[in-house]
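Q: Please design a sequence for this.
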């Protein structure tokens, strides 16, 4: 359930997205709020500026949270973001331990506003292969065998 306090912080994320556009970057912005609602960190999309396909604000903040927050605090932290996180960012959020995400636009709404947003081609993946060789590093790492 989205509260009035959530809406205030979500509006700030939307404003961060607008600032990204004003600086020549894509229109995405995010922030992290701690358990008490205090803003811990903010980020905007800098994919174009940094020439880095991973420079999404959600992933930047997931990395920050993984480095800077203990697991209990991360689990009680909320990310507010202008658009629903993509698959790459969602993976980073899961691994960061951030407990909640509130977004302004869904992926479907974004694609309706900008059809190119949904035009990513698929990447062919083949496998699994070489199980016996590949499992050795995994077993050594996780089981010490």
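A: Design:
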């Amino acid at each position: 359930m989205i509260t009035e306090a959530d809406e205030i912080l979500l509006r700030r994320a939307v404003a961060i997205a607008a600032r990204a556009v004003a600086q020549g970057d894509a229109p995405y912005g995010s922030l992290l709020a701690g358990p008490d609602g205090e803003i811990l960190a903010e980020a905007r999309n800098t994919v174009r500026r940094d020439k880095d396909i991973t420079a999404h604000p959600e992933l930047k903040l997931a990395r920050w949270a993984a480095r800077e927050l203990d697991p209990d605090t991360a689990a009680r932290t909320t990310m507010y973001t202008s658009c629903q996180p993509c698959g790459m960012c969602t993976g980073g959020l899961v691994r960061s331990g951030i407990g909640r995400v509130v977004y302004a636009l869904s992926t479907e709404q974004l694609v309706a506003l900008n059809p190119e947003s949904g035009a990513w081609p698929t990447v062919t993946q083949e496998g699994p292969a070489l199980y016996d060789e590949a499992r050795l590093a995994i077993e050594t790492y996780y089981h010490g065998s």
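Q: Thanks. Anything notable?
A: The helical segments are 4-22, 47-50, 57-68, 71-75, 87-96, 107-113, 131-143. The longest helix spans residues 4-22.
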